[in-house]
Amino acid sequence: MTEDTARQQMRDWEDDFAVALSDAARDVPGLLFRIPPGQSLPSLQWEGDERGAYWASAGLSSNLSQTTARLHYLREPADEEGPFERDEHPWSTLNVGTCDPSLVAALMVAAVQHHRSSLFSTDRATEK
């Protein structure tokens, strides 16, 4: 396989992943998918969490045999000043265990749902 062929397969996989992530997010009430203008990474955001969003990245390894994935959550502070209120990586792996973009998207959405529960429990503890 040529380098150009491998790069094309990687780009095709990333496109398939973005579609699969959009579909997986659509199945979760309140979870929004978008690719912000000027960005290449998909973003997931919970309705009502205007200050926070997840950046979702995934792709095939150079030999096309493994999938890496990373989920990065950033949340702006309420006063919109200073560093991020939260800057977390709820899921990051060098080998997801599958090269199926639909399964990777489903795992990513599951990680977002799990992380959301930690956000609410931390927010409630802070309010007390």
What order do the helices and strands come in, and which of them pair?
Layout: H1 3-26, E1 31-34, E2 43-46, E3 52-60, E4 67-75, E5 86-93, H2 101-127
Antiparallel strand pairs: 1-2, 2-3, 3-4, 4-5
Question: How would you describe this protein?
Answer:
With 128 residues, the chain is of the alpha+beta class. The chain has one domain: Aspartate Aminotransferase, domain 1. The protein is built from two helices and five strands. The chain starts with a helix and ends with a helix. The mean pLDDT is 90.
**Helix segment tally:** 2
Which strand order spans the largest sheet, edge to edge or round the barrel?
1-2-3-4-5
Overall pLDDT confidence: 90
How many E-type strands? 5
Cα radius of gyration in angstroms = 16 Å
Q: Low-confidence stretches at least 5 residues in length (pLDDT < 50)?
A: none
CA-CA gap between termini: 59 Å
Portion of residues in beta strands equals 25-35%
Structural class assignment: alpha+beta
Label the overall shape.
Answer: elongated
> How many separate domains?
1
In CATH, the architecture is Alpha-Beta Complex
The portion of residues assigned to helices is 25-40%
Biggest sheet descriptor: 5 strands, antiparallel
Write down the secondary-structure element order.
Answer: HEEEEEH
- Note the quaternary state here: single chain
Task: Give the class-level CATH name.
Answer: Alpha Beta
- Quote the CATH topology: Aspartate Aminotransferase, domain 1
